[in-house]
Structures are given as C-alpha cells and as structure tokens.
Amino acid sequence: MQYPDNFLGLEKDEAIPYEECKVVLLPAPYEGTVSYGKGTSKGPAAIIEASKNLEVYEMDIDAEPWDAGLWTEEPLKPEQNPEKMMDSVYDAAKKHIDAGKFLVMLGGEHSLPYGTVKAYKEKYPDLSVLQLDAHTDLREEFDDMRFMHGTVMARIKEICPAVQVGIRSLSREEAERIKKEELQVFFAEDIHDNDDWMDKAIENLSGNVYITFDLDAFDPSIMPATGTPEPGGMHWYQTLNFLRKVFREKNVVGFDVVELAPIQGRHDCDFMAARLVQKMIGYKFC
Asked: Which residues contact 139 (CB under 8 A, 6 or more apart)?
C-alpha cells in the first residue's frame, strides 16, 4: 500500500497501484554525517507536507505532472553506519529501478545519492551525473569518513563521470583536483549573469543522466533552509531554464532533491523544494 502521507496528499480515489505508476518518490530522512547546520532528516516530511498545498498545474509546461502516476514509498529507516546507509539506499533504489520506475529520492543529506547512482549505473552503463550544488563534495575523506556529504561526488566519480554546476565553495585539495583532472565544473561566479554555459554543460553529459540537486545550489536569499548556505547562488528561473534543457536533450533516468533543513515557522523553503520536485517530474513526463 502507498505510504499514507504521500506527495501531493493524493486521496485513495486519486492514487494508482504500484504496478501502474511511473514515478516512485522515496523519502530518505537521514543526516548521519552532517558537519554544520542540522535538520535534513526532517526534509522529506517537510517537502511532502508542503506538496499538499501545491497547485498541481504547472504553467510552463501546461500540464499536471501527477498524471504520470505517482507512488510515495515508506521512508527509509536511517542506519547508524554511513556505509550501511548507502547499502540500504542502493537496495531500495535497485528494487524500484528493476521494476521500471522513475525514482525520485527526497533527502536527507547529500551522501545518499551514492547508493542511487550505484543502482542506476548497473542499468545504464553510460550513466553520467549532473550535480547542482554550492559545494564540489570532492574530498577523499572528511573526519576519517569516506562516505559522507562532503565526499559524495568523489565516490560517485569512481562510478561514472559528472558535471558540476553552481559551485562556489571548495577546499584547496578539491580546487587542485579540478585543475589537474580538468573536471567539468561550472562555477557560480561564471554563470550567474548569462546562459551561455548551459549548452556546454549539457554537451558534457552522456545520453543517460541522473540529477542530484542539493538545494544549497540556490542563493540563500531564496533558499536559506540548508545545512551550509553559501552566498552567490543560482536563482529560480535560471535554474528552471537549465533543467528544462537538460530534460529535453538528455534521457534523465532519475533525480534527487536533498539537503532541505526546514526552518521552524517558515514554509517558503519547503514549498519551493516541493515545487521543484513537481516541476522536474513534469519536465520528464509532460
């Protein structure tokens, strides 16, 4: 049975059986390795709660994305050990991918996508990852951990190539790696006032793409509810324009939206995250 507290608050007569759905939303309320602001474990529930108040019609695509058929899975149980958590994400993702579903993971911290990417790579050998983020997350280790939010892209790049967009905070180690390996990184400072970079970013992706979207990619003036907000981020319409192009030109096989750390008394960030999820589903299926 679909998880009762489901995305968009679909009633029983609006829901469809798992076998008929195209999209599975997987809440992952995990924050086992956060290093600064906490609260990402509450992100999935906040996104789902906010989604119940969305208008289901999206103007820019003249469609209602929920028509694709949505199924909200029960939340993953957090594990104490980060590597065990990655295994749990992998197992859950693989089950839905093998069933032919388009997976949308709701985080939770940004270490989670490693398990999802690992599962998708088995189905799509040419997979590449598009990361929207303020941080490169390319550290080899952090606090003696290889699997955590600050190392996730280092682990993912052991599996498949990636294009990183919106970056504006990194360590010297990460900066040197980017130069040495000529990694495809599009810094926020270089893209904030133009769209010239979009085609190049997309050209560097393979045919099958997984999108991992850390909400701190957005400027904190519109998305302050993240663990490590960084000034100088991306804005709403620029981001949507880019995402529409990616979905049009590539086969996006799944995505996640992670790192929402809800702020008590504010609903705008939760609502924005829910709207982003709905739009991305719409860009895929409408």
From this structure: 150, 151, 154, 171, 173, 174
Which residues lie below 8 Å from residue 91, measured CB to CB, with a gap of 6+?
115
74 DSSP 8-state letter: P
Domain residues for 250? Answer: 7-285
Give pTM, 2 decimals: 0.96
What residues form DSSP beta bridges with 131?
164, 212
What residues are paired with 257 via a beta bridge? 106, 213
Q: Look at residue 1 and tell me if it is in a domain.
A: no
The answer for 83, left when phi > 0, alpha when psi is -120 to 50, beta otherwise, is alpha
Please give the C-alpha separations between residue 127 and each of 19, 62, 229, in angstroms, as whole numbers. Answer: 25, 30, 29
- Spatial neighbors of 13 by CB under 8 A, at least 6 apart, are none
Reported as a pLDDT band with limits 50, 70 and 90, residue 145 is: low
- Which distant-in-sequence residues (6+ apart) come within 8 Å of 35 by Cβ? 142, 143, 148, 149, 150, 227, 228
Q: Is there a contact between 227 and 259 (Cβ–Cβ < 8 Å)? A: yes
Q: Which residues pair with 213 in a beta bridge?
A: 132, 257
Tell me how far CA of residue 260 lies from CA of 46, 48, 82, in angstroms: 8, 12, 19
Residue from 157, 249, 131, 160 nearest 199 by CA: 249
Q: Which token pair is 247?
A: 């979905």
CATH number of the domain encompassing residue 268: 3.40.800.10
Is the residue at 2 inside a domain? no
Structure tokens at 153: 């892209």
Q: What is the pLDDT of residues 183-241, one digit of tens each?
A: 999 999 999 999 999 999 999 999 999 999 999 999 999 999 998 999 999 999 999 99
Compute φ and ψ for 105, nearest 5 degrees: -95, 135
∠ CA 21-25-26, nearest 5°, is: 130
